[in-house]
Amino acid sequence: MKVSYECASCMMRQSREAIENAVEDTEKRMDATVKVLSYIEENFKKGVQSNKLGTDLHTMIMNETKNSDPYKQLRENGNRIAQKIVPKIRKHIEENPTLEQYVKVAVVGNIIDFGALEQDTDMEKMIMDNIDKEAVINDTQLLDESLKSATKILYLADNGGEIVFDKLLIEKIKQDYDVEIILAVKKGPILNDALLADAKNLKLDELTTLITTGAASVGIVEDYVSDELKDLMENVDFIISKGMGNYEGLSEMEVNTPIFYLLTTKCNVISKELKVGVKSIVIMKSVN
Description:
Number of helices: 12
Strand order of the largest sheet: 1-7-6-5-2-3-4
Strand content: 5-15%
Shape: globular
CATH class of the largest domain: Alpha Beta
Largest sheet: 7 strands, mixed
Order of helices and strands: HHHHHHEHEHEHEHEHEHE
Structural class: alpha/beta
Number of domains: 2
CATH topology of the largest domain: Rossmann fold
C-alpha cells in the first residue's frame, strides 16, 4: 500500500511515542525529533510504500536513541492484558464454538496495537466491547473450505497481546483440521510486534513450527524479509495474515498463494482502501 497524506500525521505521532518510550532525556528526545522531521521531509513522497517507510523511520529512531526495543514494556503489557481476559473470552466462545467465532476473536485481538492507536487506549474495554461485532467482510466459509483441503499453511503474526488470541484460533484449527501450521513472528523488536519469546512463552511451539520473518519490519516488507520466508509463502496452501502492517506489505507484492487477511481497521487509509468503516472487522480472502 502506498502512503496517503493522512499517513504523515500518523507517522509523526508514532515517532513522538517511540522517542518518548525510548529515552527520557529531553535533549535526546529533541535531537531524535529533529532527525525524524528531516527524514520525513526527505522520504515522505507520493508512491512510497507505507510500511517500508514506517520500518525505516522506527529503525532510525532506535538507532538514534540507542534503544533497540522502545515498545518492550507495551508489548509485555499487551500480553498481560490479553492473558488476563482469556478466561472471559474462552467462556464467551464456549457459547458458540464455531470457526467464525474463533476467527472473530483473533481479529478483535488485533485491537491491541500501540502503533495504530493512542497508547492510553483502554485495550481491554475495546476488546470486550467489540467481541460480538459482526464482520463487515466475512470470508470465514472460504477459510473453512480451504482448511479442509490444506496440508500446510503459513500464519503471519502481528502484535504482542494479539498473539494470545491467535493461539485460541490455532488451537481450534489444530483440533478440527489436519493441517500443519507454520507461525512467523518478527526477527527483532519493531513497535509492539510479537517476537519468538512471546510465542514460546505461550507454548505455541507445541502447536506450530515457529519461524521468524527474517526481519524487524512493520508487517511484511519484501526488501527486508528473508528469502526463506518468500519461498515458503509460495509453497504453502494458503497464508493467514494478521493485522494492517502485513496487509500494507503483502498488497505490494506479487504472491501467487491465496491470502486470508484478518484485521481490524484502525485508520482511515486502510478503511477507504477496503471500502469499510474504521473499526471494522475484516475476514477477507485475497483475489489473485
